[in-house]
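Student: Please help interpret what follows.
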Amino acid sequence: MPAWAVSGAKVAEMTTDEFDLVIKTDLYGPFFCCREFTRRRQAAGGGGKVINITSVHEAIPSPGSAAYGAARAGC
């Protein structure tokens, strides 16, 4: 797990900005990449498949990484 994903903050102490940073990186990132891939493949007349692989942290939570676990579970 990347060091920036582990704020160490308890959920009650985590700011919305801290949560948003992780969600926007780890959940929006794969969406934007898949969308761009799909657009480019369609424009080129091709097909294809995208397989996103996440980590185990949606099922095995780590203390201080609630946002990361939530983002991984969303993928």
